[in-house]
Amino acid sequence: MQKNLTPREQEIFNLLLKDFTAKEIAYKLNLSYPTFDAGRTKLYKKLGVKNKKELTSKYSASILYNSVINKGQNLSNSLASEDKPLTLHFIKTPPWGYYSGINFPMFNDSIITRGDVYVFYSTFLSNVDFKMFQLSMADDSGGEMKSFFLYPPHPVIINVKANTVYSSSTILTHDKTASSANALSNRFNVHVAPVLFRQPVLTFTQFYLKKIKPETSKNR
């Protein structure tokens, strides 16, 4: 089964999709080239690709958007755009921080199963500085005492600054199977940590979840 990406692998993944060169990524992450190259090789192996071209063809947000839009399909798994941004307000959960649960229409008649791989694309800005932007997916259909993670909280962006635009592409490999096919059993969560003096508000111009077919992931 494909393993979740480490925070460093996630950074390399995001920068590769933004078309930075290998030397530019090594410089941005303050890595020697051999260290970067080893990390990139491990990333490719996890994602089942051989090179940057294969990575881009499978995980590029622009390619996935264009392929859907050109077919005239409804982007029910896209909840934000520049014309219609999505604003998230959060529930405070001391001592960890805040979370906001989102119901994707795609899960009204489908179910997450163990080993499923999704890619989440986001572009957002925050009203406050905070330490960590995280994602998770959970089955909340049994109430607070019986809820469980399908994909545990995973850091995506560290040290977010207010009024700065961030973009990310995140691989989510699910550890468990949801109990049923409905939005509550397949809940997508955004986490902000830690607890702050001001209530965080995130405004997204891209908030898009895409399932990757099993045959595109070789390391499973």
How would you describe this protein?
The protein is of the alpha+beta class. The chain has five helices and nine strands, in the order αααααβββββββββ. The chain has two domains: 7-67, Winged helix-like DNA-binding domain superfamily/Winged helix DNA-binding domain (Arc Repressor Mutant, subunit A); 75-216, Galactose-binding domain-like (Jelly Rolls). 23% of the residues lie in helices and 33% in strands. Strands 2-3-8-5-6 form a five-stranded antiparallel sheet. Strands 1-9-4-7 form a four-stranded antiparallel sheet. Strand 5 (130-139) and strand 6 form a beta hairpin. Helix 1 (7-17) packs across helix 3 and helix 2 crosses helix 3. It starts with 6 loop residues before the first helix and ends in an 8-residue tail after the last strand.
List keywords for this structure.
single chain; 220 residues; Arc Repressor Mutant, subunit A; 2 domains; five-stranded antiparallel sheet; four-stranded antiparallel sheet; 5 helices; 9 strands; disordered C terminus
